[in-house]
Specification:
Length: 404
């Protein structure tokens, strides 16, 4: 994974202070330790799931589902997986009914994921599914130790797995929350963690990623009032759900009151997919208000060599320049052309991330890269990156409405 910046870095002292802050955070924020975990117990648990299970269904919302979905949808097109993975993550009744129509309840294992053990959306869906399938062996519960959900699971004699200490939901993809459903589908979670570990070691051991991440985070923080919209422009449909994961990570972590002032701050995340969004959002970036930075993500090897046929179409001879061109080359030419066009504007902060191929290791690297970047920017704009009081406020109101 190579990250190239097209903007000037900020004060070196600011960067070093942020780096030291993250070094200290490693002592009490749990996600930093996930790349180095021993996954043997998780793999042993996965081996207990019967071979006749065809579908793994995650019942969870937000951080309980988005990370696993991002990895699964990235890998699925290029690898033959042993099981299907689906996600019950909405209280939309049409969505629930549609998903149920596509699975065999007797050949599905459900993972019920809730850090607190009391997530309303999750348990409204679980109650409905439990009314259809009440065999406790069909469920595994993933939650914090000692939560009400763990107590319930023990009551019905169902399996329970725990989240590690001090790992928030949106940072939990590399814990049991993401690793178990992915492993059950046949995704190589060891390679996933290896990719994350490579970024972690490069950053904390003065490697290439330290300088790159610090420069990028310092620029975002210094200019957060002007360039307060951050766009990922990913040139692959396989990254669609990675963009959704990034939106939650970035928005929920950075949209806050500052710790030492009364100001509201935040950087608005937007996920775009090229070339499709070249025909919609690009116009706003190119000629709209100068309040956006853009990160382009390219894939060098798509594991697919289909080419445009060598065909001449009457009255469309000018398009013969496409003939015999691999689609993988065309999509990256489109990306490069947009980058050049935006560079010519001269006042739009840009950077590019090149991913060598569609593998577990590479998506693991990309995930941990963005987790570190989020922590750095949060430190530099002076917010608590790891809480979400705005989300909790809505939950409190909903509970009062339900009680009434």
């Amino acid at each position: 994974m190579i990250n190239k910046l097209y903007f000037n870095p900020s004060d070196k002292a600011v960067q070093e202070n942020a780096f030291e802050a993250l070094c200290q955070e490693q002592n009490y924020i749990g996600y930093y330790n996930l790349p180095n975990q021993d996954i043997t117990p998780l793999l042993e648990y996965c081996n207990t799931i019967p071979d006749d299970i065809e579908t793994i269904a995650v019942i969870g919302i937000g951080g309980s589902s988005l990370g696993a979905k991002a990895v699964y949808e990235f890998i699925k097109p290029t690898k033959e997986l042993k099981r299907r993975l689906c996600f019950f993550e909405s209280t939309d009744p049409i969505n629930i009914t549609t998903l149920l129509s596509k699975i065999d309840l007797e050949k599905t294992h459900f993972l019920v994921i809730s850090k607190s053990g009391t997530t309303i959306e999750t348990f409204s869906i679980y109650k409905y599914l439990y009314s259809l399938q009440n065999n406790a062996s069909a469920y595994t519960f993933i939650t914090d130790p000692g939560s009400p959900l763990e107590q319930y699971a023990k009551e019905i004699k169902a399996s329970v797995l725990h989240l590690p200490d001090n790992v928030g939901g949106r940072f939990s993809v590399l814990s049991a929350v993401g690793l178990v459903p992915l492993a059950l589908c046949g995704i190589d979670i060891e390679a996933l963690l290896l990719g994350a570990k490579s970024i972690k070691e490069s950053f904390f051991n003065n490697g290439y990623m330290k300088d790159t991440l610090l420069k990028k985070a310092a620029f975002y923080a210094k200019h957060h009032a002007q360039y307060h919209i951050n766009c990922i422009f990913a040139y692959s449909e396989t990254l669609k759900y990675f963009c959704e994961w990034y939106v939650q990570l970035w928005g929920e972590s950075l949209g806050k009151h500052q710790r030492h002032s009364a100001f509201h701050v935040g950087l608005t995340p937007i996920g775009l997919i090229g070339p499709k969004d070249q025909h919609s959002f690009l116009q706003l970036i190119m000629e709209g208000t100068r309040d956006k930075s853009v990160t382009f993500i390219k894939i060098e090897d798509f594991h697919d060599n289909i080419t445009i046929p060598d065909i001449t179409l009457t009255h469309l001879e000018s398009l013969d320049t496409l003939n015999s061109l691999p689609f993988s080359k065309l999509i990256n030419m489109q990306c490069d052309s947009v980058i050049e066009a935006l560079q010519d504007q001269g006042d739009i902060p840009l950077d590019t991330i090149s991913v060598t191929s569609v593998t577990e290791k590479n998506i693991g690297s990309l995930i941990f890269y963005y987790e570190l970047l989020t922590s750095l920017v949060g430190e530099l704009i002076d917010v608590n990156t790891y809480d979400q009081p705005g989300v909790e406020a809505g939950k409190i109101i909903l509970k009062k409405k339900l009680e009434a």
